[in-house]
Design brief:
- Pfam families: CinA.
- This protein is an alpha/beta fold.
- The chain has one domain: CinA-like (Maf protein), CATH 3.90.950.20.
- Helices cover about 45% and strands about 20% of the residues.
- It is built from 6 helices and 5 strands.
- The protein has a 5-stranded mixed β-sheet, sandwiched between helices.
- Strand 4 and strand 5 form a beta hairpin.
- Helix 1 packs parallel to helix 6.
- The mean pLDDT is about 100.
Length: about 160
């Protein structure tokens, strides 16, 4: 699915998108806003690259981060839920009209939190609850980050099809 197709789908359903990124470092939001009319759907993105920022900016449980590290499916879930609720509240939007998405993972070159390079978790939170995907990509940092962006776009589309 292309970014343009995803944005059309979201707009057609009257939904907005809130993005929390770690390993993709803003690339997901950048890919989406490269499409004309993205402002009708994309609310914004928080790049929480440092572990502590995941707690302070997105509401991820600090004990979870301490015990499991930042590359964890539950961390991805809490990032997606956190960005969804925070942006909804700050922009006075009904939460049921907002989809939250998050990316966290290991782009390399070294493993992190005991997770091998290429391990990525993508979560999508919305009115249908939260769904998290675990990916295992290969390649260099750039390839893993690009694959993560493509996967996130595809997974948001899958979530919407539910």
């Amino acid at each position: 699915m292309s970014a343009a197709d995803l944005l059309k789908q979201l707009e057609g359903k009257g939904l907005k998108l809130a993005i929390a990124e770690s390993l993709t470092g803003g690339m997901l939001c950048s890919e989406l806003v490269s499409v004309a009319g993205a402002s009708n759907v994309v609310l914004g993105s928080v790049v929480a690259y440092q572990t502590g920022l995941k707690a302070s900016a997105l509401g991820v449980n600090p004990q979870l981060l301490e015990s499991n590290g930042a590359v964890d499916p539950e961390v991805a879930v809490q990032m997606a839920e956190g960005i969804r609720s925070r942006m909804s509240l700050q922009l006075l939007l009904a939460t049921d009209r907002v989809i939250g998405v998050s990316t966290t993972g290991v782009a390399g070159p070294d493993e992190q939190d005991g997770k091998p390079v290429g391990t990525v978790f993508i979560a999508v939170a919305g009115v249908h609850g939260v769904k998290v995907w675990e990916e295992h990509f290969s390649g260099n940092r750039a390839a893993i980050r690009n694959l993560s962006v493509s996967a996130a776009i595809a997974h948001i589309g899958e979530y919407l099809a539910r």
